[in-house]
Design brief:
5-stranded antiparallel β-sheet; mainly beta; 5-stranded mixed β-sheet; about 160 residues
Length: about 160
């Protein structure tokens, strides 16, 4: 037995076992399956803008969690969209990572302009999430941590 412990074969087997243990421990954890939700926004003109207004407002999002646990997401500073247009979100949830892709349809410019869209995310469990919001139409984004618990609020400008 002592001859085996000092042999080359023992060290080869020990190295193989150690490599297998390291490979097992370094394996990335499973994030779970992806769930995608498509949400349409409730459009409004919160600031009373008209088409002739030349002032621009900062594009931003506001997040608040209702008492029932649903997340209200407000998209502020929308420009060039009328009441016949649409603002929608493609929300992808993988584990505790949320990726939101904004989609904008301008609509008819003879209709009243809008500047705010409201979305309800009622499919998240109470927990901490990593949220990334991306608006391809405005080339802006924001990344943050979202805590789904009642009375949580956060306001974030979209970065270009």
């Amino acid at each position: 037995m002592t001859d085996f412990l000092g042999s080359v074969e023992f060290y080869v087997y020990a190295t193989l076992v150690a490599a297998a243990i390291v490979a097992f421990l370094a394996r990335p954890s499973s994030r779970g399956e992806a769930r995608q939700h498509l949400l349409s926004g409730e459009l409004s003109n919160a600031t009373g803008r008209t088409w002739s207004d030349t002032t621009t407002t900062q594009s931003s999002i506001s997040i608040c969690v209702r008492d029932d646990g649903a997340v209200m997401l407000f998209r502020h500073g929308i420009e060039g969209v009328s009441s016949s247009g649409a603002v929608s979100l493609a929300v992808t949830v993988i584990g505790f990572d949320i990726t939101i892709e904004e989609r904008i349809v301008p609509g008819n410019n003879l209709d009243d302009p809008i500047d705010t869209a409201v979305f309800v995310l009622d499919f998240l469990a109470p927990d901490r999430y990593h949220l990334k919001y991306n608006s391809s139409a405005t080339s802006s984004f924001v990344a943050t941590t979202l805590l789904v618990r009642p009375d949580y609020e956060k306001h974030l400008p979209l970065n270009r």
